[in-house]
Specification:
alpha+beta; 3 domains; three-stranded antiparallel beta sheet; globular
């Protein structure tokens, strides 16, 4: 079943809104810097610069409001997608998977971390889900002015090709890599060639965005005992995107008390409060446990999820962009198949993480 046009339009609108917010954040911070400099110098242009700052701040507020609306619209469309059209109840997971447009599309399985706890009085198993690091996108796609200028200079100073037709000058690349680090320098070079007609917007702060998780539309918990599937419980839709860390540019975000006077931004309260995790699809309650399940638990708990709300080509690009994000930040590599990544007693893994 093809993805609805409303979903496609909602994702595109959110992308535009986020780009607009990034651009207006840069404009506000630039206006703030100009105003601060004028204040220190007691410039006669102080009134004009104050007005410019007020305008930039108002435009950023408007952009943030539009981005919030776009997020809500997209997540509402995903929620509708996951409902049975006939009953308006959550769609059966098998029915959701069956409507993928192509049955020959491969499904990539990424790891997640699970935490479980029994509530014996309620005869319920609480299952909490945390994304693995590979699902975390921390890549800053916007450039600082220094990064932009360094990239432009890099391409401008390319020497004529040598006898073998090579243009590369190791010295120029080494200088850029030393200044920004190899992963970031590689990204700067990629997005600043003269032939690129749509360069990334600029940013002032570093970092300027929260880490976000690339996740399925929802998770489904499967509980096995004695070789049989006892329970299959879907969770609520997972917001897209889902924040993993505080947004350093989100100064207007309301703090949430998570206990003992400790507060976190509302966008990541799901990482601390179980009720918020449930509402954000990052926790699932398996209720109605049988006597033997309460007494001795389960043999295995598995959590799966797919993103049927994207066409296969679009979800492939989403995964490609995620791997690019790792390549341009913490690095990306492949280890031989079967290589253990964890140490066990008496046996140390040969895998060594970068950094």
């Amino acid at each position: 079943m093809p993805v609805t046009q409303s979903l496609i339009d909602a994702r595109a609108a959110l992308q535009v809104a986020r780009t607009t917010t990034a651009s207006r954040l840069f404009a506000r911070e630039t206006a703030r810097a100009n105003l601060d400099a004028a204040t220190r110098a007691q410039s006669p242009d102080l009134g004009t610069l104050q007005g410019a700052f007020d305008t930039a701040r108002s435009m950023l507020d408007d952009a943030r409001g539009a981005e919030t609306t776009a997020r809500n619209t997209l997540n509402g469309a995903i929620g509708d997608w996951l409902k049975d059209p006939a009953t308006q109840q959550p769609m059966d997971p098998d029915a959701d998977l069956a409507r993928m447009a192509r049955t020959d599309t491969p499904i990539a399985l990424y790891p997640v971390r699970l935490e479980t706890r029994f509530d014996l009085n309620a005869r319920t198993l609480h299952v909490r889900i945390y994304p693995d690091e590979i699902l975390s996108d921390i890549h800053e796609r916007e450039l600082t002015p220094d990064e932009r200028d360094a990239g432009i200079a890099y391409w401008k100073d390319i020497p004529p090709p040598d006898a073998q037709g090579n243009h590369e000058d190791v010295g120029r690349w080494t200088a850029l890599a030393k200044r920004f680090g190899v992963p970031r320098a590689a990204y700067i070079v990629r997005v600043t060639p003269p032939s690129l007609t749509d360069p990334p917007p600029l940013r002032v702060t570093a970092p300027s965005r929260a880490a976000e998780a690339v996740l399925p539309d929802r998770f489904v918990a499967l509980a096995y005992k004695d070789g049989q599937l006892r329970h299959q419980q879907p969770g609520l839709p997972v917001p897209e995107p889902l924040a993993l860390t505080a947004n350093p540019s989100g100064e207007t975000e309301q703090p949430v008390d998570v206990g003992d006077g400790f507060t976190v931004p509302a966008s990541i309260s799901w990482t601390m409060k179980y009720s918020e995790a449930l509402q954000n699809g990052m926790a699932i309650d398996i209720g109605g446990l049988a006597d033997d399940e309460v007494a001795s638990g389960f043999d295995r708990i598995v959590v799966l999820g797919v993103k049927t709300s994207m066409e296969p080509e679009d979800s492939s690009k989403l995964m490609s962009d995620l791997l690019d994000a790792h390549h341009f930040t913490r690095g990306l590599d492949l280890v031989p198949q079967g290589t253990p990544t964890n140490n066990v007693p008496g046996r140390v893994t040969p895998f060594v993480a970068a950094g």
